[in-house]
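Known limitations

Files may contain more than one protein. Parsers should not assume a single record per file. Below, a two-record file is shown to illustrate correct handling: read the sequence, read the token line, then continue until end of file.
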Amino acid sequence: MRTRVGYCGGSKRNPSYYSLGDHTEAFSIDFDPAVLSYTDLLEIFWDSHRSDRNHNSRQYMNAVFYRDPAQRALAESSRDAIGKSVATQILPVGEFTYAEGYHHKYYLTRYAEIREFLEETYPDAKSLADSTVAMRLNAFLGSGMRRDWHRFLAELADYGLPPAIEESLRGTAAKMLDNA
């Protein structure tokens, strides 16, 4: 439903990109377990990175951050099911701190008109980071959902975008479908 980027897993108060302390760069996901379970997310996570190695830097280490004992147990069980040596850490999230605004919805920086509209629509960087519409647009226009442009077109009218932006995005989707 929603994603945001930030810092977690450390003890420093108010970490930032240039003063991270012992935090790790991370992303947070709000999801509907009736649509996608935590176990499903863990499966995607383990399939999406090299779990047998880890970065030397705490800032960029591979980690699953859990919010409660149930998530911890599921994360550990999914790690153990991999059946090989895993260097990825499983740690408590602690407090999640939003990254600076320019880190959020990064792929939208390539689409100035869309980004400007969203920045005018949402009163502050946190609201933009929490926006489901911004998350969906960022995912489709970035890399995450390129294979389902029909779904994008079906959702597009619900995003509340100005007609010119919506029409431009329909053209982008049509090109992607033509190239598929």
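...continuing to the second record:
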Amino acid sequence: MLGETMVAVIPAYEPGVTLLSIAQEIRKKKMELIIVDDGSGCEYDDLFHRLREFAHVIRYPENRGKGHALKTAFSYLSGDRTGQYSVVLLDCDGQHSVEDAFRLAELAGQDRGALFLGSRRQSSDSPVKSRLGNAITRLVFRATSGVGIYDTQTGLRAFSSELLPEMLEIPGERYEYEMNMLMRFAEEGIPMIEEPIQTIYIDNNSGSHFHALRDSARIYWEILKFSGSSLLSFLVDYFLYSVLLMSLGGAAAANILARVISSVVNFTINRKYVFHHEEPVIRSAVKYFALAAGILACNTILLMLLVKAGVNAFLAKIVTEILLFVISYLMQKRVVFRKKTAERERAVA
């Protein structure tokens, strides 16, 4: 085991020879280097053999994803090292400078309770896919977490060894792991500090293994599940609302009765399948239906205002549901189905 106080971790899937020069630079900085071969295949045997001169190389035969590769390195570190050190994560394609990585590792060693993020500033020279993806993810992350981070997709991240247990608890095996990391830290109130770094895109980022549709779905999976649950509940709600409106004739009464029934459906789905909540059902039900009552009151008032303003009652219902969707998601995630992590449990015990 080496004596350095900084460890660089690089997950590698079908890397180019650029990784050799990156490894050499890292070792010149007196940092320990761990490279995880995420199932690149036997045709990369020679490259990884050469990399062993500069790094501890971990290999496994099948591709399991970036998140799995990172956690493999974290598990190795947890079992192999003692004492304090800082960890910096880099991509294998040369789009992070070693100088920036070294600087972030130093900062993580100085502020041991924070996650440091290498923040790239997008410009007209950046690939359109990267600019668009970062902009969308930035907006979604801010809306769902309440924390503003400019570059949510950066792979250059640094933290102290004290945060390794937290890193190992975070779910996700592929690209969604990096977003889950940010979401977990936002929930826990762990500081996330952005540091400006060089913006490097090699060959228009063509070497990236990020699959826009598939991996974006993984990143936004929790939000997609919540949206699906909300859509199903809305269909139940809207169907009952329409039936009751035609039979009772009053929009307010129809809205209240339909919402009571659809809320039971929504609570059951969200608790079990969306947020995987383990708190006793009675306790979470009390919080959920208190929120549902508040949402219902706002929903009904807004609905009546729209109807009195001359908006069609059926259209008014759709408008109110869309407006209150984000509020409902944030409150359910942060209050009703908020996860109690192991750290908080230890604090309470």
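Parsers that stop after the first record will miss the second one. For reference, the second record is described as follows. The longest helix spans residues 221-248.
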